[in-house]
Amino acid sequence: MAKEVKxxxxxxxxxxxxxxxxxxxxxxxxxxxxEDLKKKSELLLQSNxxxxxxxxxxxxxxxxxxxxxxxxxxxxxxxxKPLLPQDPYQRAMARFWARFAEEKCLPSGxxxxxxxxxxxxxxxxxxxxxxxxxxxxxxxxxxxxxxTAGMVDIVAGWLPFWIRRMEGLFGDKVxxxxxxxxxxxxxxxxxxxxxxxxxxxxxxxxxxxxxxxLASLEPN
Amino acid sequence: xxxxxxxxxxxxxxxxxxxxxxxxxxxxxxxxxxEDLKDKSELLLRYNxxxxxxxxxxxxxxxxxxxxxxxxxxxxTWPEKPILSEDLHERAMARFWAKFSDDKxxxxxxxxxxxxxxxxxxxxxxxxxxxxxxxxxxKGNKFFGGETIGLVDIAAGWxxxxxxxxxxxxxxxxxxxxxxxxxxxxxxxxLNLxxxxxxxxxxxxxxxxxxxxxxxxxxxxx
Lengths: 220, 222
Fold this sequence. Notes:
Chain A is α+β, with helices and mostly antiparallel strands. Chain A has helices spanning 14-25, 42-47, 67-77, 88-114, 117-136, 151-155, 158-170, 181-191, 194-197, 203-217, and strands at residues 5-9, 31-34, 56-59, 62-65.
């Protein structure tokens, strides 16, 4: 029987993976629909006419696009096992750091991935600088949310998996014990959470996907 | 405990302006503090160490930076006169359109504003496309929030004043009756709301500021 919750996704998308992690954290059952991004389904095009992208969450027939919007929706629709604190000020701080991870760390990660030579060195510097700031938000805690993971952990949760894949691809080190000790530890702690581990795509497959992306960026 | 609310901002900031709309709409009393970004106050640097930017809302001594984070905080802390629906899907769609406005329309407006020649023409085409998409979200309603304003009206609430001044500086209209009948109507309706109107910067002062700003951006890029 079809479930009330459907997720339109693509296996290699970090945006989709973090929505899956949130759904898994909350114990929400859902039907996963793998989209062919070269041949998008009618459902996807109708559900997200503005961006025509995954992920899209469909709940009781109503579509919600944009992973950040989906995460807030999931939090409100299934309030047990909260991802955000109760206190309004703490909630604002969590939203601030989620936004920082999304608007600063993510673009600099993309820049690092898509550049070469001198440009990539500069991009790496900017990425590490932003990660240093993000690390400050950990404030000696295990997770951004404290003893257990929360919204900021899930929003920034692409970092532990995808930064390591990029490091492997480029034979480079971005986040280490030396330069980002707390974030480095958080990488490990986040990836070992069962509800995270269960939703990660196979690392080698992701590396192949990233290699393919890099190749497609080459001018020919 | 004191309800003390302070807003640190600058008169020409569209981000500070939209926080002011939210505060005024909800009837929240606050102290406005004008910052000098060329000589940032100790307080500002302490309140927003990450970005060192305005606006920053300070409530009971606790600082909250980032205008959309502030607006969500204001909604949660003063729930009377809500700007978000109770319906969860509608809330999500409001957040979607507020994000679209910031992610797509704002950069497009800035690109249009800060370029010339061919780059400028391309930027205009992109801007028109994005604004058309945003206009669609009005769905024939007076406001994005329906009969009264909501999150999206506030998030995009800087556009009428700023876009009209930019049009004057460039001597070129983008949002007109012909091309954007609904958005044009929304511009007009929003600007006439008292809690919007009372917070608007003086148009001539803003126009002059934008003219100088554009010139400095063009000079930097050549």
